[in-house]
Amino acid sequence: MAELSVGDLAHRSGVSVTALHFYERKGLIRSRRSQGNQRRYDRAVLRRVALIKVAQELGFSLAEIRARLAELPDNRPPSRGDWERLATHWADELDHRIALMQNLRNELTGCIGCGCLSMERCTLLNTDDRLADAGSGPIRLMQEAGE
Q1: What is the mean pLDDT of residues 23-27?
Q2: 145 pLDDT more than 70
Q3: How far apart are CA 2 and CA 14, in angstroms?
Q4: What is the tens place of the pLDDT at every residue in 80-129?
Q5: What backbone phi and psi angles, to 5 degrees, belong to 3?
């Protein structure tokens, strides 16, 4: 089977039909219409939908996902090389997010540099809220993640 109906795509991808229609309206996937005006998807769309699901789970916005998917060719199914280039472009962002999550995991019960001074450890690591001069938000957490 070269093409999938919307129901087949939903079943194979684990994504609801309404979500697939939404992805299509947002330009993340595309279909063609059959003679009976039914949507038909190339099997390569399965990989796009899988990538969309994983990227959303990792916290990427639909705009970020669409920007990355726009790097793939429109006139043919993406090749292995196309997917490798896309993965390479996402690697730095993924590495940054991984570092940030690891820092959050490791420092969440301690001082993250937000200035709250509500815990004893915070008063030791951020005496008199000296991190306020470095900016707003979780200064220590973001600095350790390389921001």
Answers
A1: 94
A2: no
A3: 19
A4: 998 898 888 888 888 988 888 888 888 777 777 777 766 666 777 777 78
A5: -125, 155
139: enclosing H helix or E strand = helix 139-144
- Quick one: 28 exposed, middle or buried, by C-beta within 10 A (0-12, 13-18, 19+)? buried
Q: Among residues 27, 21, 22, which one has the least CA distance to residue 6?
A: 21
Q: Measured between alpha carbons, how far is residue 103 from residues 27, 91, 98, 107, 112 in Å?
A: 34, 18, 9, 6, 9
Count CB-CB contacts under 10 A for residue 40.
Answer: 17
Q: Per the structure block, which two tokens stand in for 13?
A: 């991808």
42/106 Cα distance (integer angstroms):
43
Q: What is the pTM of this model?
A: 0.71
DSSP three-state, residue 87: helix
Give the 3-state DSSP-derived string for 27-43, with helices as H, strands as E and coil as C. Answer: CCCCCEECCCCCEEEEC
Whole-angstrom distance, CA of residue 46 vs CA of residue 10: 9
Is the pLDDT at 146 greater than 90, yes or no?
Answer: no
Q: Share the mean pLDDT of the chain.
A: 86
